[in-house]
Amino acid sequence: MGFFFMEKKYQIAIDGFSSCGKSTLAKALAKELRFLFVDSGAMYRAVALYCINHNVKIEDSDQLNSILLDINIQFKQEQDTLQIYLNEENVTEAIRDLKVASQVSEVAAISSVRKKLVAQQQKMAESNSLVMDGRDIGTVVFPNASIKFFITADPLIRAQRRYNELRAKGNPSIDFNLVVENLRHRDRIDSTRDDSPLRKADDAIEIDNSTLSEKEQLQVALTHLYNKFPELKN
Ligand code: CDP
Predict the structure, then answer these.
(1) Nearest by Cα to 184 from 114, 110, 107, 101
(2) Where does ligand 1 bind, in terms of residues with CB under 6 Å?
(3) Among 46-55, 85-94, 169-178, 223-232, whose mean pLDDT is lowest?
(4) In the CATH hierarchy, which top-level class contains the domain 11-226?
(5) Whose CA is nearest to atom 18 of ligand 1?
(6) Whose CA is nearest to atom 4 of ligand 1?
(7) 60-94 pLDDT, tens digit each
(8) Which residue ranges make up each domain of the chain?
(9) Which residue, judged by its Cα, is nearest atom 6 of ligand 1?
(10) Does the pTM exceed 0.90?
(11) CA 195 → CA 36, 160, 191, 199, distances in Å?
């Protein structure tokens, strides 16, 4: 029989609507705590990108199930940033395209896609303490997470943030109304789908960050976290 010591692992679950600052908070928390950061949305975006590039008809479940076997998604920490690879190709930039955003919620509503990605997400937590952001992290992926946050923000503020982000990333001619439309579309599909709809877990702490700076939202989350787990403070 092996003799081993299992260090306590923490899972910080962060859920919320599109563009509400989940990833920003998750990244900042992971950096502060030296935990692994996992952007689960990036995984769904990578599957959507694959479907777009390979002309996969997502309503054809046989085709979809067979391509899922060919999809390998990996995160790699490079310098200070998290890069995402789809079958050895770095797709970190490509998955942020509005074209991907316009398909991803349809892809993410498919149970076989969710099953594959959720299994991979749960596996990452076996060997790491982590901060994961998404839509179903506190409800489905880690129902027993150490702590759960549910982030909300005014829809127009969310759209403005995403618009600024896309412009800063080199899309000067992006149409604000298209961004608003895309967020509405995804919010609706994400919260009404049958499999793992977006909702606040009963035991999640809600943070409305409409008027909070990035630093302030981090402080709010850390205060909750350190109250619950003083051992993490130092
Ligand atoms: O644009 P934003 O950063 O808010 O979204 P994202 O986190 O990149 O997620 C993109 C899409 O993936 C969402 O609109 C959902 O349809 C889907 N998703 C999901 O279904 N479950 C998750 N845990 C994460 C994302």
Answers:
(1) 101
(2) 18-19, 23, 40-41, 44-45, 104-105, 108, 134-137, 186, 190
(3) 169-178
(4) alpha beta
(5) 41
(6) 18
(7) 989 999 999 999 999 998 988 899 999 999 999 99
(8) 11-226
(9) 41
(10) yes
(11) 26, 29, 10, 12
